[in-house]
Amino acid sequence: MTHKIEADKQPLRSDGSTQTIPRGLSRRDLLACATGGALLGGGVLAGARWNEWGWRASTFIGRAETYTSDLERIITDGLAALGVDAHEVQGKSVLLKPNLVEPTRLASHVNTHPAVVRGACMAFRRLGAREVVMAEGQGHTRDSDYALEQSGFADMLASEGLEFVDLNVDDVTAVKNQLGQTRLRELMLPRTLVHRADLIVSMPKLKTHHWAGVTLSMKNLFGVMPGAFYGWPKNVLHQMGIEQSIVDINAAARPHLAIVDGVIGMEGDGPIMGSPRTAGVLILGRNLPAVDATASRLMGIDPGRIGYLAWSAGRLGAISEAHIEQRGEPIASCTQTFQHLNEPTMKTLVGSYRA
Amino acid sequence: MITAWAEQSRARLLELRDPGTGAWGYSQHRAPAAEPTALAALGLWVSRPQSRPVDPESHAAAEWLAKIQGSSGSVGISAEHPEPGWPTPYAIWLWKALDVHKPGRERAVAWLLKRTGKPIPKANKDVAGHDSTIPGWPWIDDTYGWVEPTALALLGLRAGGQFGHTRCQEGVRLLLDRALTQGGWNYGNTLAYGNTLRPQPESTGLALTALAGLVSENTSITRGLDYLQTTLPTTRAASSLAWGLIGLAAWGQTPATAETWLEEASTSCLPKPDSTRRLGLLLLASNIQRWTPLFQPGQTEDRHDAQD
Description:
The complex is a heterodimer. By secondary structure, chain A is an alpha/beta fold. Chain A has a single domain (about 5-345), classed as 3-Layer(aba) Sandwich (Rossmann fold), CATH 3.40.50. Chain A contains 13 helices and twelve strands. In chain A, strand 10 and strand 11 (about 275-285) form a beta hairpin. The radius of gyration of chain A is 18 Å and the shape is globular. Chain B folds into two domains: about 1-115 and about 270-310, no CATH class; about 115-255, no CATH class. Chain B has helices spanning about 5-15, 35-45, 55-70, 90-100, 100-115, 125-130, 145-160, 165-175, 200-210, 220-230, 240-250, 260-270, 275-285; strands at about 190, 195. A two-stranded antiparallel sheet of chain B has the order 1-2. The radius of gyration of chain B is 18 Å and the shape is globular. Chains A and B meet through helix 5, helix 8 and helix 9 of A and helix 9 and helix 11 of B.
């Protein structure tokens, strides 16, 4: 049976209804898929599902040569290309979740750049958002002030009047782990995420990752999980399986959009100790697996070789190039070959995708 | 004499307090939680004027912490969330400082002694860069031991008089093993695939505070102190600055401008609704001599505030 799914046409959540479960496919169907996956894989996320259950998605690539480019305009263009308009944003609370993995003044390729968050903030405000907040629950330091100060965010937050919420110590709501790819029966999600945000925007950095292969919009949501319950670093999630945790968190958190900072990315020993790699792009999309698949291709990596993306195909979205409509710049014009660690499991990723 | 910024910080802490419970949340109007409650109460206690020998707000907070202590002896995140128990050392510090809740304090110390991180027997030291077989203390049950919970636990055990316990020796071993070669500590990883990771002032300050009095100065200590002396002038992030200064003071190295830095950090914290933990720590850093004797040998149960 084939389901026709219009991932791009789904409304942004306003009533708590699911966004990641496609039209025509019930939650029960999805859970059945998840259970099947668990049985087949024995709890290990592996194996591409090229039957993507009719999932279709769009991603937008915009050229952004430097952080002084007009990032608000590029993001505005991207949102428009994805059909995100004032009607959908007006009156909404928008939560921007950057990747603030580690405080450092010296390495601008580690964290999402403040200029990208500023551009998104201004774009959503122009579309009529009731409020825009930035939220993070960084994993490598408890001191969010230090993370913000050292990464250049503190000045931007002050100049834009942008509120910051420390998700590590937010009040929490327990949410049933519906996918169940980890053994966690419930996930403790910040109340800001569950009860305040109407529109959740994952804003990762374009990076390779020494365990997961890549760290992009889906992995970035590790940062919504409160350290008070998962630790600093979020060791509970590591022990449960990074890939399994990625899909469980994404299914529970229900993000609506992704904006990837690929102006300067990271290759090699990501997510912290890799080298800067200028890619000169922003990547946007509503469907996070599709965004991460496109971003992987931009790094020269076949997304089907990334465990959590292969698992997500047909369950949480589309990763097949044939099922992702490319808007803005074509992938071929932006693709580079990002290096990985010189480890046997990582070698197979380098250059595995060629446009 | 209490300084103007300390007076303002005290007043702000009292504003942020939950009137119903006498405890503090991480942010105003949010659920009271153990860590901000203990730190705010300790901050008030150590900064109280000489004319105020008893601080009723601190005692009320200690009482609230006693109420949420679990039967295991641990103190969880909040009344609603009795697990995980990583805030337990903070409660021990406060109870010890006020010399209250002695049975509960002993149960908390016993719980800390039993709690261990989950070691990894055969980790590749070339990848992780440290000895993964030392259990130490974790943030969350059944997970790995890290620098900060280990340092907090060591300070909890010291406040409980357990200086010579083998678990203390184990904690010291973990902290020394996780010291970064270039100086300082981070959350607890030293290398990632051969790349040396970056130090952080909060972790470094905590580790140095926990180690003071338990080890003699060595290369790791010296490099950690040097890291803080270099880094603290560049930050006004309250928690990092406060723990950094506490760590330096524990080794007799308080910078001459420390009080100015603390004042500057408090100025940026004061308007924020989520400044409870920060203000508590800043007050603790400004009054180190009034509370760090809690962690020194020879502190008997009836000599809890050595400087008074």
